[in-house]
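Students often ask why we bother encoding 3D structure as a string. The short answer is that it lets us treat folding as translation between two languages. Here is a chain of 260 residues written in the first language.
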Amino acid sequence: MKRVRRTSFQTGAALGIVLSLWITGMAGAAVKSHEYGNVLMSQPQNAKTALPVTFRHWSHRGKYTCRLCHVDLEFSQLANGTGVMEEDNRNGMYCGACHNGKEAFALETCTKCHPKDKQHEAELEQQAKREFQKLKETMPGATYGNKIDWMKAEVDGVITPKDFLQGISLRKNDMMVNSRDEPRSPALPGLPEIIFSHSKHVVWNGCGMCHPDTFALETGKTKMSMREITEGKFCGRCHGTIAFALNDCTRCHSKPVASP
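And here it is in the second language, the structure alphabet:
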């Protein structure tokens, strides 16, 4: 009997989560694993003459933390929010902070990022597919998103993301690291409780990517809904776009609801 009840609970909870995502329009949002997290970067004034650059998060995630780019290098987390110019890169900002011929290939190797024409764009896409497949074969797997478990890869030492660039970054204060878990109750009855892990996010994000702009500093002060998250707010800034996908429900909804 206990086995039957557990199965029924798991089935009901899974159905509830899927229904919640379906209501918010996310259930059918499928993206190919090598495209998950890709961002198209273009300049409106050159849109008619230059093809956009495809920035592939998966090719950077194993090498650098999210915080390094989005805090230290000031890349916006919002689409079209950065305004990267070629002059900026030449002056060592944004992409140019690493693409200097020392940290990563130099800006002069333009066609590694900038497609010359449609045919070259297709060639870069095929090359990226091959590189992604080779990477995925060396990494722990996941069910959704780009099907790589980045957290497990970091914990297991498969990757060691760099979190400091000389002349740009400041050393993090280890006394400011928060490693406690934050329990939250879902609004939809019957779903497993939510456990937010500070320690898992500190490795990648630090504090500044989340506080105080996106989340209040005090526990329970930020009111949010699943609908808002699927619209790209709060947790949805990263989850569903870059970090593991929202349909990977049990990564957050991980604590069983107490029996009445």
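Translate back mentally: Residues 1-28 have pLDDT under 50 and may be disordered. Keep this in mind for the problem set.
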